[in-house]
Specification:
The chain folds into 2 domains: 126 residues, Rossmann fold (3-Layer(aba) Sandwich); 165 residues, Dihydrodipicolinate Reductase, domain 2, CATH 3.30.360.10. 31% of the residues lie in helices and 20% in strands. The strands form 2 sheets. Strands 8-9-7-10-13-12-11 form a 7-stranded mixed sheet. The protein is globular, with a radius of gyration of 19 Å. The C terminus is likely disordered. The protein binds NADPH dihydro-nicotinamide-adenine-dinucleotide phosphate (NDP) and N-acetyl-L-glutamyl 5-phosphate. N-acetyl-L-glutamyl 5-phosphate binds next to strand 9.
Length: 319
Amino acid sequence: MTPSIFIDGEAGTTGLQIRQRLELLSNVTVRSIAPERRKDPEARRAMMEEVDLVVLCLPDDAARESAALAASLGARAPKLLDASTAHRVAADWEYGLAELSPEQPARIAAAARVSNPGCYPTGAILLLRPLVEAGLIPADHPISVNAVSGYSGGGNAMIAAYEARTAPDFELYGLTLEHKHVAELQLHAGLTRRPIFVPSVGDFRQGMIDSIPLHLDLLPGRPDPAALEDALRLRYAGAEHVRVVPAEAGAKLEPQALNNTNGIELRVHGNARRGQAVLTARYDNLGKGASGAAVQNIGLMLGVAVQTTLPGATQQAAE
Ligand SMILES: NC(=O)C1=CN([C@@H]2O[C@H](COP(=O)(O)OP(=O)(O)OC[C@H]3O[C@@H](n4cnc5c(N)ncnc54)[C@H](OP(=O)(O)O)[C@@H]3O)[C@@H](O)[C@H]2O)C=CC1
Ligand SMILES: CC(=O)N[C@@H](CCC(=O)OP(=O)(O)O)C(=O)O
């Protein structure tokens, strides 16, 4: 029998994108409840009892409630994949970033509860963790992450505001330095010092860039940009969805090139003479930043082959 999946919150931005990707597969069945009962705990609990895996695409509090509903089923509880921020630093949930380490795919496959990574932390963690592990960046180094997202990152409410033309063309936010992604970014990048994180959102639907400036003369051994790029290349050799791309001199970077794919491009833009570098990660906030990664995790958790890119997406070398 093909494994079955219930998406709790399937009408939301992330839920819809996961559903679109799962509809391409013949080796899983997606089950739904009547739209008018989507917030009814009894209907959700009954559906949870019948499926192999539940994907939570809900606001954080609703995700916690839904996880508790599933736990109340005891031995009949399905596997859970949570797309919200609620469980990303919880010790009893596995972190669903398959490229976190060579062991992570097997850990995700074996876990009953997996939290899907946040959109912004995905790029920053993939850039920083290998460099911290290689000793090129000390764990307590002061790190700043600047990022820009398409407006779909703010879910249905932000999409409606941009489409009604009532939102600004571009704005910085998170300026209290308390953004919900910082704890996750710090933990999974392996940093002991809390990074500064400055997100921003612009008038385009989807696409994301994280960028991390570095003064190379403050790093141990004063590495040149090529040493950073080599470490990333070594770490992601053979990774299906991560591509380390040489930065071209004078190149510009726009955020939408990988939209609807599950790919991510990492670059080291360096100036050896100035002893400076900027690390960048470019991806789709709804792809590798959310639903693409979720479907990748579903494949691992259910042991089935999946397609993580939407049809019609520009085929990227990263895929
Ligand atoms: N957008 C993005 O780029 C990303 C979002 N996420 C995460 O995914 C989660 C969902 O976000 P997103 O899809 O953007 O949000 P949306 O606002 O687009 O969708 C949320 C969905 O959840 C439903 N919902 C809300 N409360 C309940 C409840 N108590 N019971 C059942 N359903 C409920 C909403 O229904 P209704 O509208 O009727 O209230 C809506 O359909 C969030 O935790 C977010 O952090 C993760 C990665 C990226
Ligand atoms: C533009 C925008 O508002 N983005 C959201 C992040 C997206 C999100 O909530 O998703 P995850 O935590 O699940 O990745 C924010 O900054 O809160």
